[in-house]
Amino acid sequence: MSTQPSATSLPASALQRGDGAPEFALPATPDQIVRLSEIRGPVVLIFYPADWSPVCGDELSMFEAATGLFAGHGAQLIGISVDSSWCHLAYKADRKLSFPLLADFHPKGAVAKSYGVFREDDDTTERAIFVLDAQHSIAWSYVSPVGISPGVDGALRAVEALS
Amino acid sequence: MSNEDSELSPPVGADDHVSGNAAAPITLVEYGDYQCPYCAMAYAVVKELQRELGDSLRLVFRNMPLANVHPHAEAAAEAAEAVAEQGRFWEMHDLLYENQRDLGDAALARYATQAGADETAFSAALQGGAPRARVQRDLESALRSGANGTPTFFINGERYDGSWQLEPFLENLRSLLDD
User: Fold this and answer.
1) Catalytic (active site) residue A87
2) For residue B37, is the peptide bond before it cis, meaning its omega torsion is within 30 degrees of 0?
3) Residue ranges covered by each domain of chain A
4) Is the Cβ pair B146, A151 closer than 8 Å?
5) What's the alpha-carbon Rg for chain A, to the nearest Å?
6) Which domains does chain B have, with CATH numbers?
């Protein structure tokens, strides 16, 4: 991930606070589908460019370390990338991630597009975080430069502000 | 409420492990993981920064063990905190990074003794649970401060997203002294 868009080129298209969160149904494993509408309580959607990339690994490990803090507010973490569910399965096992990684693989990036964070340039997604309140309205969103892991502080403050 | 203004929380305080001049113009806080290979590389870089910057640099180390990828990281961090109770934190910190290939429990006890800690007091400290609480408190402060990978550095309270290779890192820190 060597191309780093400057802060000023971040997409204006990303959904913002106050927007409703578009519904989705994506595979978490080759035989299990996760639907947003079936998740109760606040949700943190973590869009990231690719399994196995070093920056994404750092980002997801930080969220893994923070699972207890998010769970304390009843918030469910969900990772989403355009990788397939088979790839996610191997990656999740290798990194011992406890939260689901959803495959926005076919049609590629359809969910990322609905949140305004698909990258046409390289067919991946922005490094973007959406915090959804219990009614699944977007309470906070953030798009990080692709080459910089964002940390969990912004999402954590947003989740804490919900309760 | 953006991630861009990630700031160190809590600020450096009396509980922190500090090395160098207390009145230094630059305070470098490292959130590190003893089992992380990048942190071991950064360890050598930070030693060099300390040599180059001398009294201009105050170094602080806080624990950020990422247990999902580094199964020995928490135990190593707790061992360092247990040794710290005997005033030998930096000796242990250095031994851990210099011997990163073996961070098993037996090795940790050996390094504690090498660092100059009393073995019985070391075991008692670990069993008492204070080191574990300390490590978890550090980890939470890392998460709340916006630490974004191992290692994460904060320079005078602000997250540093630049390169921590020696030359660019040193250049960046020196530029702060010119102001």
Assistant:
1) no
2) no
3) 13-162
4) yes
5) 14
6) 17-173 (3.40.30.10)
Sorted by sequence, the CB contacts under 8 Å of residue A32 that are 6+ apart come out as none
The pair of three-digit structure tokens given for residue A50, joined into one six-digit string: 């690719």
Q: Name residue A21's amino acid.
A: A
- In the numeric block, which tokens belong to residue A99? 């939260």
This prediction's pTM: 0.93
Residue A146 in tokens = 């692709």
Question: Among B144, B150, B159, B164, which would you mutate to test the A interface (most chain A Cβ atoms within 10 Å of its Cβ)?
Answer: B144
ipTM comes to: 0.92
Counting Cα atoms < 13 Å in the Cβ hemisphere of B43 gives: 20
Out of 3.30.70.20, 1.20.950.20, 3.40.30.10, 3.40.190.170, the CATH code matching A13-162 is: 3.40.30.10
pLDDT digits (tens, 9 = 90+) for A83-128: 999 999 999 999 999 999 999 999 999 999 999 999 999 999 999 9
Contact B152, B28 (CB under 8 A): no
CB contact under 8 Å between B146 and A152, yes or no, is yes
Segment A56-78 shows an average pLDDT of 95
